[in-house]
Specification:
Elements lengths: L4 H6 L28 H13 L5 H10 L4 H6 L11 H8 L2 H13 L1 H11 L3 H12 L8 E2 H10 L9 H17 L8 E2 L12 H7 L15 H14 L9 E5 L5 H7 L9 H6 L3 E2 L1 H5 L5 E7 L2 E8 L1 H7 L5 H22 L2
Antiparallel strand pairs: 1-2, 3-4, 3-6, 5-6
Helix pairs in contact: 2-3, 5-17, 6-8, 6-17, 7-12, 8-12, 8-17, 9-10, 10-11, 16-17
Length: 352
């Protein structure tokens, strides 16, 4: 079968009639060219099926023949032509908005039992889990409207020029998408997500779904689109696997040293916790009383505020762990601030 792969790619559209798993794909009038007949795609399929014998090369080839290049995906993955200066206050305001806060409290109260169970099992506070789901998709309201196979094929095989090439990363995610669809018996053509291929309420990339998603409702399958229990458990498991420590604060207040060599030395490791409290003090930083008593490693985290002076926090290992979900100190701080806000408002709501 595999020796005839190239020929099958060239005529893959005809194979739709004999591939039931793909039968629900919709025909679009005058569609743009698919990915059949391309040697790089043929090579990808050969490598994919050699690594994953459970996959059928004809089904994979048929799916890729039906995938469509998405110009909007190529545009969205590019950095802004004139990027604005980083501004923590502006960034924060995008995520601590009325809708997320209101719906976050409701989501927490509606799903209190499963959130408590996840916190007991993995040690991740319910507030942090709820906050991440809110930041990512506003509790499932914005999960993305692109067919995942279209988005990932576009970025795997036609990654736009003008920024560092990440096509290898997206080829790996496209591979993971096929493995995920086969494992969970999902029609790969029906899976939808963001322009970057992130999926479901927690916006897991396909490889993260395979590695970290859990069947927390114990119904025999993982569903990150509709099962709140699976979403909650998977977010908690992801953070736990990446080093979340039960009952550890995420950060402490800190006054940095004046601009100069000491501040530069403390900022050099970026957000990786690398200093003891005494190290920060020796460099002229002033920690809060709680921070001064902390015995673990800390990072001096800078959050720029445009033309205004930057903000600073001393991040712990749990701050670092949140950045494994999205590699940004601004993201981590937004998650933390939203979690704090939700905790305060839920307490008020519970007392009514």
């Amino acid at each position: 079968m595999r020796r005839r792969l190239t020929a099958r790619l060239a005529t893959a559209a005809a194979a739709l009639a004999v591939a039931p798993v793909l039968a629900t794909a919709q025909t679009v009038p005058s569609p743009p060219p698919g990915y059949e007949g391309r040697e790089d795609v043929s090579a990808f399929v050969r490598q994919l099926v050699s690594r994953h014998p459970q996959l059928d090369d004809e089904v994979v080839a048929t799916a890729l023949a039906d995938a469509r290049y998405q110009p909007q995906v190529a545009r969205l993955i590019m950095p802004a032509a004139s990027p604005a200066a980083k501004n923590w206050k502006v960034y924060r305001s995008r995520f601590l908005d009325t809708l997320r806060v209101r719906e976050g409290v409701k989501f927490w109260r509606d799903n209190e039992a499963v959130l408590a169970a996840a916190e007991a099992r993995w040690g991740v506070p319910a507030a942090v889990i709820v906050s991440i789901i809110g930041v990512e998709t506003i509790y499932g309201r914005q999960t993305g409207g692109f067919r995942a196979i279209d988005a990932l094929s576009t970025l795997a095989f036609d990654f736009p020029r003008g920024r560092s090439d990440r096509s290898a990363f997206f080829r790996d995610e496209l591979e993971a998408l096929f493995v995920l669809a086969a494992r969970d018996r999902i029609n790969v053509m029906t899976i939808r997500g963001s322009y970057a291929g992130a999926l479901g309420m927690p916006q897991f990339m396909p490889s993260s779904w395979l590695k970290f998603a859990v069947d927390f409702d114990e119904d025999g399958r993982v569903d990150l689109h509709r099962s709140v229990a699976d979403v909650v458990g998977s977010v908690a498991n992801f953070l736990s696997v990446h080093g979340w420590q039960r009952d550890l604060p995420t950060h402490f207040d800190v006054l940095p040293p004046p601009e100069g060599p000491d501040r530069e030395a403390l900022l050099a490791p970026d957000i990786l916790p690398s200093f003891k409290a005494a190290d920060l003090a020796a460099r002229g930083a002033t920690l809060s009383p709680a921070g001064q008593q902390f015995t673990g490693q800390l990072a001096l985290v800078e959050l720029r505020n445009g033309v205004e002076p930057p903000s600073f926090v001393a991040g712990t290992g749990n701050f670092w762990t949140i950045t494994r979900y999205n590699w940004s100190a601004y993201y981590a701080m937004a998650v933390i601030d939203l979690a704090d806000t939700l905790s305060a408002l839920k307490l008020v709501a519970d007392q009514r």
